Amino acid sequence: MEHEVIEKQPLLNKKGRINEEGWARYPLWQYDRTAVKGGKLKIKEWDYYAIVNQPKGYALTATISDLGYAAMFAICYVDLNLKKVSQTDALTFFPKGKIGLSASSTQDNHVTYSNSKLRLAFIKKGEHRHLMVACPSLVLPDGTVGLDFNVVLTQDSKMESLNIATSWEENRKAFYLNEKVNCLPAKGTVRRGMHKEELLLGEAWGVLDWGRGRWTYQNTWYWASVSTLIENIPFGLNLGYGFSDRSSASENTIIYNYVIHKLGKVTFQFDESDLTKDWHITNEEGRLNLIFSPIVDRSSMTNFGIIKSDQHQLFGTFSGTCTLDNGTNISLDKLVGFAEQVFNRW
């Protein structure tokens, strides 16, 4: 069952449960932090961006998140040619919704963070998402010291995105509200050390993961994403499962020329003992037959006993076929994207 929501509405009712679970082509649910039941320390809010430059062989990521007990700020540089990752992060404790993340992905907003080693600013104004990120001390995989990027991602108001609102079967007051915006064209500059690179139109593409929710204590999820061009037409994939009750809708979709082509259940087949081996990705309708070949594993582990996070975000290439709603087959030939397995207990 894939229930499409088509009307704007408050996300939660007076009991703290989702009014209408399902998926939507646009962000229709109205999130209100004060309507969440169960304690403010359990609320999770995040804005995550990934930008992939396939011709140049690298990716950039940036995160601002309020996870209840702590706020996390992170940046990462992924070198696909050297097969190495450089990253840094910072934590503050008990933010309680005060870092300034927006209640809606569509509203203009300005959220920033800085300390002695890391600076981030995410500015949403109209159709533009302006990312300003810097870490002068970050040692990149080739030995260069210092990274900053000043990039604008454009999100036309007519672009469809994958939106989902679902709850957990064991606790319907625990919920997951998420928007994935694929195929965001990127322009701006990337500076590594003293070398400044101007992004060329059409070579770098971004994805936004905008999420708000109140989770259950322990979860494992899987997510794969691609944003690029195929024969000069914007193409994207958003595939994921394992997180909340998806009986009302999945978040699986093909994006072609900024239009959603909805998929049902998707399965990732991979070697649990070695995530760097090829993954086989299929769906129950037979519309996906993909091989994901990892190049580099961006991994991190945090373990404080009752709080644990084990994350593997693998950047690599996708090859195979997928089928649009009208039956058109699309061939993928080593398109760069990522797939991840994440375990969280908090």
Considering the chains and any ligands shown, give keywords for the structure.
13-stranded antiparallel beta sheet; 24 strands; AttH-like fold; 0% helix; 346 residues; mainly beta
Please characterize this protein's 3D structure.
- The protein has strands at 9-10, 22-24, 29-30, 43-53, 58-66, 70-79, 84-93, 109-114, 119-125, 128-139, 145-154, 162-168, 171-192, 195-198, 204-214, 218-230, 233-241, 253-256, 259-262, 266-269, 279-283, 288-303, 308-323, 329-345.
- The chain is built from no helices and 24 strands.
- Strand 9 and strand 10 form a beta hairpin.
- The chain is mostly beta strands and 346 residues long.
- Strands 2, 4, 5, 6, 7, 8, 9, 10, 11, 12, 13, 14 and 15 form a 13-stranded antiparallel β-sheet that branches. It has a nine-stranded antiparallel β-sheet with strand order 19-18-17-16-24-23-22-21-20, with no helix packed on it. A two-stranded parallel ribbon has the order 1-3.
- The mean pLDDT is 95.
- It has a single domain (38-345), classed as AttH-like domain (AttH-like fold, Beta Barrel), CATH 2.40.370.10.
List the helices and strands and how they pair.
Layout: E1 9-10, E2 22-24, E3 29-30, E4 43-53, E5 58-66, E6 70-79, E7 84-93, E8 109-114, E9 119-125, E10 128-139, E11 145-154, E12 162-168, E13 171-192, E14 195-198, E15 204-214, E16 218-230, E17 233-241, E18 253-256, E19 259-262, E20 266-269, E21 279-283, E22 288-303, E23 308-323, E24 329-345
Parallel strand pairs: 1-3
Antiparallel strand pairs: 2-12, 4-5, 4-15, 5-6, 6-7, 8-9, 9-10, 10-11, 11-13, 12-13, 13-14, 13-15, 16-17, 16-24, 17-18, 18-19, 20-21, 21-22, 22-23, 23-24
